[in-house]
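Lab meeting, item 3. Inverse folding demo.
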């Protein structure tokens, strides 16, 4: 496409590419100095025009980021925090942008009631809650998890017990029971208290071992810090009852710091998991009320070869 002035319409923001800007600059240059002006890639004037085009492109990137910061699906950091009051939310200590975006989506869904999604959204928006799952047994008999007939089981990570109980009570349909291993107190519109059962999640502890060969230009300390942090964040963002796909950790390690990705080779990833014998290299299962969690202190270990 040819160069065009940036604009915003009903479909969003539109801006020219770097190549289109550079083409427009070279055409303007030839319009001033003549069609025969020397503008090969090695010519100083062409290189200067490239610098101008890159600077304009950097400004466009900043404008695009500012434009997207109004949308919680794209906003990050402080820009995302500024959107949270619109949804009655606040970022919890140490909470990632991914987790915040998920809670915003759930807050929007919680405007309904009675459905599984509405219950899930309400619980995830309860004070301090970081994640939740809702299981439904619509049959007349207990299911394979032990949930009684015509009942729900809510598994929650974080959140005050009474806040979680209130969220469940407010959203579950009348006549549907709640089941779980712990409980909180919910209050109805007339001030009467109700004991609402639910279940707290349990950690599925794992020990992750990454074997890394460092190239001549690599720095072991930087690689260890970057890879350990990236793997910890990846595991932290796994939801409740989500298994760990071990081969994906190869990609997580290389993506930890793209500038260092060429300086090391991940030769193997091995996982030991609670309740499982031997080394796991494919899939670490996760129970219905569990969350994959690295063992404190030694849960993620880098072995240099």
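The presenter then showed the designed sequence:
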């Amino acid at each position: 496409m040819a160069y065009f002035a940036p604009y915003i319409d009903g479909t969003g923001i539109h801006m020219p590419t770097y190549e289109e800007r550079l083409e427009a600059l070279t055409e303007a240059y030839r319009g001033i100095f003549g069609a025969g002006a020397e503008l090969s890639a090695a010519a100083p004037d062409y290189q200067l025009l490239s610098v101008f085009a890159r600077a304009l492109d950097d400004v466009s990137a900043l404008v695009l980021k500012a434009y997207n910061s109004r949308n919680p699906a794209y906003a990050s950091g402080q820009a995302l925090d500024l959107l949270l009051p619109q949804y009655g939310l606040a970022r919890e200590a140490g909470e990632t942008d991914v987790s915040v975006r998920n809670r915003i989506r759930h807050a929007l869904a919680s405007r309904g009631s009675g459905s599984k999604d509405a219950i899930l959204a309400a619980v995830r928006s309860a004070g301090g809650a970081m994640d939740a799952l809702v299981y439904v047994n619509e049959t007349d008999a207990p299911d394979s998890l032990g949930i009684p007939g015509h009942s729900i089981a809510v598994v929650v990570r974080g959140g005050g017990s009474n806040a979680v109980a209130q969220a469940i009570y407010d959203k579950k349909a009348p006549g549907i029971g709640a089941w779980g291993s712990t409980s909180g107190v919910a209050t109805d519109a007339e001030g009467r208290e109700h004991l609402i059962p639910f279940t707290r999640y349990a950690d599925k502890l794992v020990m992750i071992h990454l074997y890394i060969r460092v190239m001549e230009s690599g720095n072991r300390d930087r690689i260890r810090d970057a890879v350990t942090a990236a793997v910890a964040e990846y595991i932290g963002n796994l939801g409740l009852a989500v298994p760990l796909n071990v081969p994906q950790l190869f990609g997580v390690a290389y993506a930890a710091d793209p500038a260092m990705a060429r300086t090391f080779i991940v030769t193997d990833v091995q996982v030991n998991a609670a309740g499982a014998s031997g080394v796991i290299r494919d899939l670490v299962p996760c129970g219905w009320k569990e969350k994959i969690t690295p063992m404190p202190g030694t849960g993620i270990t880098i072995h240099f070869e």
